[in-house]
Amino acid sequence: MGQPTPARKDKDWWRSAVIYQVYVRSFADGDGDGTGDLAGVRARLPYLAELGVGALWFNPWYLSPMKDGGYDVADYRAVDPAFGTLAEAEKLIAEARELGLRTIVDIVPNHVSDQHPWFQAALAAAPGSQERELFHFRRGRGAGGELPPNDWPSQFVGSTEPVWTRLPDGDWYLHLFTPEQPDLNWAHPAVRQEHEDILRFWFERGVAGVRIDSAALLAKDPALPDFVEGRDPSPFVDRDELHDIYRSWRAVADDYDGVFVGEVWLPDAERFARYLRPDELHTAFNFSFLSCPWDAARLRSSIDTTIAEHAPVGAPATWVLCNHDVTRTVTRYGRTDTGFDFSAKAFGTPTDLALGTRRARAAALLSLALPGAVYVYQGEELGLPEADVPVDRIQDPMYFRSGGTDPGRDGCRVPLPWAAEAPHAGFGSREEPWLPQPADWATYAADLQDRDPGSMLALYREAIRLRPAFGDGPLTWLPAPEGVLAFTRADGVSCVVNLAGTPADLPPHSRLLLASDPLDDRGRLPQDTAAWLHV
Hints:
Layout: H1 6-11, E1 18-22, H2 38-43, H3 45-51, E2 55-58, E3 62-63, E4 75-79, H4 86-98, E5 102-107, H5 117-124, E6 137-139, E7 164-166, E8 171-174, H6 189-204, E9 209-212, H7 241-254, E10 259-262, H8 269-274, E11 283-284, H9 287-291, H10 296-310, E12 318-320, H11 329-332, H12 353-369, E13 373-377, H13 397-401, H14 446-450, H15 456-466, E14 476-477, E15 484-490, E16 493-498, E17 511-515, E18 529-534
Parallel strand pairs: 1-2, 1-13, 2-5, 5-9, 9-10, 10-11, 12-13
Antiparallel strand pairs: 3-4, 6-8, 7-8, 14-15, 15-16, 16-18, 17-18
Helix pairs in contact: 6-7, 12-15
């Protein structure tokens, strides 16, 4: 395969980028009030540049009552005061670009906050009004309309609470998530026009891309029929109307050379690939790999399936081990069940952190050697485990809507440790941060790891630096013993990961480029270790 020209390569940066996910609320606190903010991010931009990533994906920083971590947006064109100002966001985008870091913002199109002006106007208007047509308002069932309009399930796994809330005037409104997040009616042209205008607003401010939250949920069957498991098409997931929406979005993005990454949870590979056709989304998150157990056969199958489902539409795969919704990699890989399933989350699940850390180091090299883009969630480069947040400090609505059985997602959102000797591990807060840090959090501090060549931070930095050695060619599997994954992507460079129960001999090579842990005294690759080789 010929190398792309520099201009083409720059335009196609998203096809092979390492993208760092910033959960602003927990990244760094610049004003000391206990909440991470844009000032904190701006101060840490040199750290991110040194890490070597090419872009930053920011979770929502918009004006929000924070009923669901900022995914309840009251104004898409304003920055929440807890994080800073619009002017500061513009400075952040510009300063990041000067350091070679592109910016990806998060758009939440399925729903808005109940404090959004549109919904406030709908509440003030009468049933059947134009204001209510922007949402899904319906009369209830039953003799007096006392029953919800249908029986759709909540998108919070484990929640048994209804997705409809009744108003005093008798109307019910739909919310697939919390009652504070009313779903928009995407059949209404004003909804479509508003979101296209929002995209232009942020592209005009220099963002390079947009991550689309819950991208497969926007369109609803206008009849709002009851939910039947397995019915095709679903009344609210992956409906054909979505593709016309994203074609119009793509036209907007193309005006700015902007890119999209969609949050698309679908089990059907063919239907998943439809979102990645050349006139729709550029990329979509690969949740198969994220949720896959630490098992050689399962991982190989996930990798093969992912590459195969992207091939027909020419889209690059994305690889991610963890995000702001998912149990941290170190903790998950240290458990008996190393996969991830929202429905299986529970309090008190035992974890071997030493084992999990070893596997997480190997998984980092595996993911960074694969073809496509890689997303790294903040703190993964520090090897942070999932934190046990005291029950009385949990804020995630997933916990409350499960009746307290689901621990929620706060454990992966605990503020980062920057300096071991500073209060609150250098997060920057004068008082207790918005989520409490575990007692040993300072031992993971970035300043300690910066001085340790064997640290997780050092491993990530070196792996990202060496990653271009794999080139942009396809993945080719190499012969390997059972339990060992071995592949190449460029002449002379290969990746080997040992998930077997015994040390594995390395294939012939001229040089060891990088290993997640030291080889044994016979030069073999120990269990749960990965290596990059120059053949």
